[in-house]
Design brief:
alpha/beta; globular; 7-stranded parallel β-sheet; 346 residues; TIM Barrel; 49% helix
């Protein structure tokens, strides 16, 4: 029988609700911080053995139903010709951001093996190390989120430069999104071929758009990526934040599972998305700082709203935050698995 996480992705009955956490490997874990004292984040990402070590840390520490390969969404941009650096206290910086149609034209679209072969190698190695314990998830940033980083040169609050290029140079914008869709589609398919058993497309920044702009400038490209990823025969999770104004459009773009954040009740989101899709979410990551009984109360509300329908994967509405108490993560995972509605599947 396949693992409960993969069964839930396919909306099949499970013995209990599967649970994993975005950013489940990271700064809140002492093992990760110790490793990072010796290595930069890009060194960890680009060294398959280190990436696998970090991937396995939360699997060894908690009762989780999936591992997610330790990687970052931005290294694929390096292969296109962009210069990436992680600056202490500031985060990722692109030193030669895209600002003009000429910049877009200059971008290469290399193969995933050429650009991010280290992550594909990490996936191959992680599958051997996991040895059937839990499934392995691969992932990529979505075209809009990567375009925004590339244009803004790093994180942004208002996406003024990204929206500016989109509106002032729509032709260049569509060329950029097409190049990114080719790059990401190839990357995700490559991850599945390397051994990833599910894939997640992170469109973390797409909530900055109006529904009309999403439909015109983003949806066709996310759809193209998801279709190519699904052609590898593995389930695809389509995740975004602040997307309550366009949930139906995310569903139209595709995905076997739609990830939702905490800004909407899970049952309301599922009603809008329809019964023919699985759903992932949706506890506020900040709630992991609350006392354990309060965390359990919030989790119970989400599980009640899911109502034991096939196709619910418990997760946070975004990644685990640094300084999150490790024992709270463990308690939440255990609580989800012991939820009263769990039932044995023959």
């Amino acid at each position: 029988m396949s693992h409960r996480f993969l069964r839930a992705c396919r909306r099949e009955p499970v013995d209990c609700t599967p649970v994993w956490f975005m950013r489940q490997a990271g700064r809140y874990m002492a093992e990760y911080r110790k490793l990072r004292e010796k290595h930069s984040i890009l060194e960890v990402v680009k060294t398959p053995e280190l990436a696998v070590e970090v991937t396995l840390q939360p699997i060894n520490a908690f009762d989780l139903d999936a591992a997610i390969i330790f990687a970052d969404i931005l290294p694929p941009l390096e292969g296109m010709g962009l210069e990436l650096e992680f600056v202490k206290g500031k985060g990722p910086v692109i030193h030669n951001p895209i600002r003009t149609p000429a910049d877009v034209e200059a971008l290469r679209v290399p193969s995933a093996e050429e650009t991010v072969g280290f992550t594909l190698d990490a996936i191959r190695l992680a599958r051997r190390e996991l040895d059937g314990k839990v499934p392995l998830i691969g992932f990529s940033g979505a075209p809009f989120t990567l375009a925004s980083y590339a244009i803004e040169g790093g994180s942004s609050r208002h996406y003024k430069l990204a929206k500016g290029l989109m509106l002032e140079h729509p032709g260049a914008w569509h060329t950029l999104m097409d190049k990114l869709a080719q790059l990401i589609g190839d990357y995700l398919r490559g991850q599945a071929e390397a051994g990833a058993q599910a894939l997640q497309l992170f469109d973390s920044w797409v909530g900055a758009l109006s529904p009309n702009d999403y439909r015109e400038y983003v949806l066709p490209y996310s759809k193209q990526v998801i279709k190519q990823a699904q052609s590898a025969g593995v389930p695809v999770i389509h995740f975004g934040t602040n997307t309550n104004g366009m949930l139906e459009l995310l569903r139209e773009a595709g995905g076997d599972v739609i990830g939702v954040d905490w800004r909407i009740h899970l049952d309301d989101a599922w009603r809008r998305l329809g019964d023919d899709v699985a759903i992932q979410g949706n506890l506020d990551p900040v709630m992991l700082f609350a006392p354990i009984p309060e965390i359990e109360r919030r989790a119970a509300d989400i599980l009640q709203r899911a109502g034991n329908r096939p196709g619910h994967i418990f997760n946070l509405g975004h990644g685990i935050l640094p300084e999150t108490p490790v024992e709270h993560v463990a308690a939440l995972a255990d609580f989800v698995h012991q939820w009263p509605g769990s039932r044995v599947v023959e």
